[in-house]
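Morning run. Coffee first, then this:
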Amino acid sequence: MPKYIGVLALQGDYQKHLEMLLSLGVDARLFREIEELPDLSGLVIPGGESTTIGMLMERRGLDTALRAAITDGLPVFGTCAGTILLARTIDGSDQLRLGTMDIGVRRNAYGSQVDSFELSLQLHDTENQLACQVDGVFIRAPLITRTGPGVAILASMDNAPVLVRQGRQLAASFHPELTNSAAVHRYFVDQLVKA
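And here it is:
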């Protein structure tokens, strides 16, 4: 069976990520069961409620399995809550997380739901000599408060990282799936999954 990019579909806005990936012509499917893990060529962890997604992952035994798969090189892209789950540290919280990415985050740092905003950002990947415009929607977004030495900052806002990469892990504070631009998803597919 050919491998596909999975979109973790336990809670949150997974359908929009699936639609964005399908619009790029890649094989993408919703992912929920540990038995499907060997079929994945990459994984998207969507926004939503990070504590709920973490609890549902743990209930299905996915937390341990995903942590091992990501550590072994499975490409992963987390947005908003997905970024929180990938982070090694979460300010003021001991909630379940995968902790595979050497970043620290502070939940809801950009304000409440009514403070949501959309913004165009410049993506710079000096290693791959790539620069492009990316759009993102910030909804109760986490602030990336710390990046480890192996983490590249690909986009910033007000001197704070909002899109970061560590090896085959990509994390965004924002929701690129809620815009008309597929630039961040294309970057994930081309630079992390296919590379």
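The chain has a mean pLDDT of 92. Good start to the day.
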